[in-house]
Amino acid sequence: MGNWFKTTLLMAALTALIVFIGNLLGGQNGMILAFILAIGMNFFSYWFSDKIVLRMYKAQEVTPSESPELHQIVAGWPRGPIFHAAHLYHS
């Protein structure tokens, strides 16, 4: 299974769990509110998960002047239409 499929399956399972808990707590209105909350949480976690992890570990970006050797190594990696220049961080 690909990572995209596994991520979608996990997000759908968590949405179902949140909606089920919303049903237990508030009936049909609770389900609707829980579904809206789950959609918002899934959107936020999908698009901002990288920033969440970097902040959690208090990572700082490494500039080319701080570590030119490391940036030269990464600059040699292949790039294409879906691969952009990497941002390097350390914690």
Brief write-up:
The protein is mainly α and 91 residues long. It is 68% helix and 4% strand.
What does this structure look like?
This protein has 91 residues and is mostly helical. The protein contains two helices and two strands; from the N terminus they run H-E-H-E. It has helices at residues 3-56, 68-75; strands at 60-61, 89-90. The chain has a two-stranded antiparallel sheet. The chain is elongated, with a radius of gyration of 19 Å. The protein starts with a helix and ends with a strand.
Q: How does the major sheet shape up?
A: 2 strands, antiparallel
Question: How much helix is in the residues?
Answer: 55-70%
What number is the mean pLDDT? 88
Q: Give the helices and strands as they follow along the chain.
A: HEHE
Instruction: Please list the strands of the largest sheet in the order they lie side by side.
Output: 1-2
Tally of contiguous helical segments = 2
Shape by Cα distribution: elongated
Low-pLDDT runs of 5+ residues are none
Structural category is mainly alpha
Computed CA radius of gyration, to the nearest angstrom: 19 Å
Q: What percentage of amino acids are in beta strands?
A: under 5%
Secondary structure tally: strands:
2
Separation, N- and C-terminal Cα atoms: 32 Å
